[in-house]
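Margin note: ligand = ANZ.
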Amino acid sequence: MLHTQLHIQLLQPPPLHRHALSFSAYGRRKFTTTSAATAVAVGKSCFGKGVWNGVSRSIRNSATKELSEVEEQDRKESIRRAYPFHEIEPRWQRFWEENRTFRTPDDVDTSKPKFYVLDMFPYPSGAGLHVGHPLGYTATDILARFKRMQGYNVLHPMGWDAFGLPAEQYAIETGTHPKITTTRNIARFRSQLKSLGFSYDWEREISTIEPEYYKWTQWIFLQLLKRGLAYQAEVPVNWCPALGTVLANEEVVDGVSERGGHPVIRKPMRQWILKITAYADRLLEDLDDLNWPESVKEMQRNWIGRSEGAEVEFCVLNSDGQESDNKITVYTTRPDTIFGATYLVLAPEHFLLSSLVSTVQSKYVEEYKEIASRKSDLERTELQKEKTGVFSGAYARNPANGEAIPIWVADYVLGSYGTGAIMAVPAHDTRDHEFALKYDIPICWVVTPNDINGDDFEKPYPGEGLIINSSSSTTALDINGLSSKVAASKVIEWAEKTAHGKKKVNYKLRDWLFARQRYWGEPIPVSFLDDSGESVPLPETELPLTLPELDDFTPTGTGEPPLSKAVSWVKTTDPLSGKPARRETSTMPQWAGSCWYYLRFMDPKNSDSLVDKKKEMYWSPVDVYVGGAEHAVLHLLYSRFWHKVLYDIGVVSTKEPFKCVINQGIILGEVQYMACKDQDGNYISAETAATLGEQAQERIPEEKVTKSGEYFVLKENPDIRLIARAHKMSKSRGNVINPDDVVLEYGADSLRLYEMFMGPFRDSKVWNTSGIEGVHRFLGRTWRLIVGAPLPNGAYSDGTVVVDGEPTVDQLRSLHRCIDKVTEEIDGTRFNTGISAMMEFINAAYKWDKHPRSIIEAFVLLLSPYAPHMAEELWFRLGHKSSLAYETFPKANPAYLKDSTIVLPVQINGKMRGTIEVEEGCAEEDAFNLASSDERLSKFLDGKSIKKRIYVPGKILNVILDSKNVKVGTR
Ligand code: ANZ
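Resulting structure:
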């Protein structure tokens, strides 16, 4: 019914007043153009060039400015008139919405294949969409539309990762509740996305801040808790005493708070932690089978950071040199170097440190610990940073050779990795080498490269090789002459036998800190009993535990999370024991909601379970997941972890959530040109500036720039070479492109097409406005080819110019080549080259005098995933009564793809009578038709009755005529 209404609406000419408006506006602009242009022309011709140049600069400038403004207006007008996208696009968006065209029903026919294509759902920031968003979204939309047309059930949803810091900070500053800000931002994002014509099933929209959604995030937390995968521990957090709050890592820059620049220290606090390390091996192993970018898999591998080595115990010595009960366990990946361990290092936070430090050194050690507490792990482990440390005053015995070696404290050893203590081997570890040189600690070479004599003892040698200087009669350990590998095994064997250590596998991966001292996040469904302090989970039946309303979001100043201000919410009773309790006031981190949202899209309204089993089994896993490379590690790792836990408890049926991940490239801002200046403010060429050092720079507008060879130079002085650079889009650089502006000026189809045409999907690309004009012109040409030229009043007549009738072989060839290329390129997510193929087709089609319906219809279907609004409109004008969204995507006929034609001999009654030119795989019927229409051959065949045809493809066509040779008409 709604459909029919649309027909009527579409078949009517656009309302008159629109035309009148645009026409008169056009007329007025035309007049202005002429006047300004005339002013300039007249000025020049009347006064001659010299006089014109003498005319007051301001008058001249204003005339030229007026001209360029008018030219700009005309340019915009001609773009607007390339085809009526501003009418077509909202109309089809309305149509899709009203007809629920892209709804994926709950009860899909599961005998059909499925395709689940997902975007990394956005955080709805106050800034709205930027042009980077539609890059990935257009790609997934093309895939979704393409697969629908290939007969797949497609799941293509969108939602919001809506908890997060910016809304909370805004709340602190303005008092506006984060829910209000977030809801407003979501509305803006949604309408922007709709204006781009993405075929999302909006009925599946979800938002992580809705209690119906986070009920299940909390449910997952309870499952983790039940399985010992969530626990509490004291861990260091970023504590800012001046602001009285705990800060997230991204709020700390160079050791001070991003807001206000106050010092931040690391302070231990009780926190919830998730035991992701229990899944380290599986997270590593299962990477191998994934169709993900190698770089992302490698980053995950490095993040998990599995290393094999040994834990070795070093006995601490008393002040009289005797062995004490204290033992320091070190983790080493190079047990083969144990004879070269000339000192030990403890991390400043090592638990044994205070018990072994000497009285004399304790003051220095305490000072050092305080300084180290202000540094992040990253700062501490930076290779370039000068190593620092203090002597603890204590010694330990190297178990391999019995020697006493000093114990140092240094922050290049982290408390959170391995055992927080190392055996330092300065001859073979760069950091230890630098440290030993600085503090005058002995260096002892124990490995030599196989190919030299080992006399280059200036630098550390971190590689493997042959072991030297490594035997001891006291301990009966001798590894001299062995290779590093064999020596390492031998040392481990010896350590295990003598109870000095054991083989050990370690991971860089840390357990996941799963709490923030923030308001705007999912409440953690746990309480603490008042009497014992014991933590008790909320029963699942009580979920969701909703976030209480709060008016004051400011930090408490004590480090207590803001939720502690919701006094009546915090005070509760444990439903099981009936005892008074206090709710957990930390909330979940922002990653929580995004860990499992892809599952909820399969069954977004289910109130009984996270996802229905049958639905999950059908839709899992996500077939293609597209998003930014910045999520290569954490988001993908965390969701894989949760997915594996859900797999273990039978909620999901696949081991991995995302079969194929693709990272779209970054879109950089338009190229900016900078001219260098000397101290007096004169322009100097960029290469001179480079030799002179730092110079002042001035931004040069594009119209003053020209290209000379491979460089950009000033138009008015080509000796001045400029610096041309594209930067990340940012407000401060003023190079941000707003997709809304682009849609207004060129239409959504042009934006979609341009973003796909900019370059290979996965590469970084530079925005270029003239590029978008190029694709817009292509769409205009396509429109005019199919609809015909505009009428004198600028409007287009209804329908199209296509004709019924058989296409020529040439036309078929153009079409099928285009089908073949577009299909192959969408399949391979090489969208830019697919567009080139369509451009070639349109160029070829402009040379035809007739445009057969079958060819044009197929082309419109090819275009539709890329430029769906225009394609729907053309499809409708071609006389179809419903959306093309579920039409069959055209299939290429291989017969028309071959480049070569062959000359086929034709015999009549066994006698050679001529040849015809055919496609190599030409069908018998086509060959016979060609022969019948051939001038020379037709006279043998015309009107004759045919007894038999013998056809050997590629070789010969022999036509045997009826022996009676009867005229067909006389029979
Ligand atoms: C002796 C040695 C000799 C080491 C040598 C290296 C080279 P991965 O591969 O990253 O696991 N290490 C151990 N725990 C540490 C900590 N908490 N903070 C800083 N460094 C630590 O690296 C393991 C190696 O890093 C270990 O092996 C240890 O130094 C150091 F020629 O032990 B090695």
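The longest helix spans residues 16-54.
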